[in-house]
Here is the input.
Amino acid sequence: MDTINLGIFAPEFFPVWGGTGSYIVELVKNLPANVNIQIITLNRQISDMASKELTQNQIGKIIKRPVEIHYVSSSKETFFYNLPFQIACFRKMASLQKQYHLDILHSQLAHMPDLFIQLLRASKLPTVLTIHSTMQMLRDYAFMAKSLFGNLEASERNSLLFSPILSVVQQQYIKNIANFIAVSEMTRKFVIKELKVEPEKISLIYNGVDTEIFHPPNNEETARRYSDPTIVYIGRMVAKKGINTLIDAIPQVLRYFPKARFLFVGGGNISAFKAIAAGKGIPESNYAFLGHLGYFERLRILREATIFVNPSLFENCSLSILEAMSSGCSVVASNVGGNPELISSGVNGLLTPMLNSGRLAQNILSLLQDDNFNYKIGQEARRTVERSFSSKKCAMETYENYRKVLS
Here is the structure.
């Protein structure tokens, strides 16, 4: 096979674990050996992540292949953290292209790290763009969250404030993209209709997870999974993730399972959601907000979780849901976005109407009250990921996409 020299823009990378960061790591780990990879990223300075930074050696043990990592800028965690990175990518592009003889670039939407490269046509290399979200999606669901809850995190408020200008910029940015990857059929249809992209330029490639790392628990962990009811949420602590709905459901679950624990994993507006939980009189012994967790800590929690809950107002192709499914954990998720493409309700998970805390509580209780049903759902979830959503499958389909673009 011919060698492909790839430059991949990574607006999220170790130790930051948003969905885009997870996507990039899983892709890089599983691309064929004939792809030489240059990771172009930044050092995001997040105070509560300082103790979780990984050394190059630790990163190498996770990725398990030779890669070059270029930290071209650094930024504090603000809404505009991406701007210095976009400028640095533009400045560094010519030298990186010359030094590593790059053949193709891979970027991410809605981050647009190569914004100035595309707008100013600073490179003639073809670019593949994975659509994790769009400016319109960020705006619409931030507006919905504001209307419903009001307690928006800073990034959500800024999405509303700056979305008009950013949507215009986005439309200019995508004009020079050679090929798009939609991670769900829902997104593929949205991009064709709303962004006016030609259907033949869009490939549907679902996100994938490492089924060897995210695996079902051993016998001892399985016994603990069903004896100690633990309901886990992993994701950003922001209003559009529907965390208010999950908190509303907690008292209903505790009526029947007073010792159940709800664990919230992720950074964001933690203090606001703590206050909401306290205001509802939920005992502190029944919930915990754990903040950011490292790569392997997250694996341990998923293997011990009785149920994984994603009550979001919108998901594209949720990696946190797929990681839970791969871990043999039953999932209760909102019937929104790309979730129905991952979950067949009652077979490999349970879908619940968005914002319906009563139905959410009922679905959680149906799994807590029937360990056999819970176990079967988790087993089928694992089989679903092995069959359709492994990171190896995602990487090979993406590789074939590179070859198609280069040909």
Observations:
- The first strand starts at residue 4 and ends at 10.
- The mean pLDDT is 90.
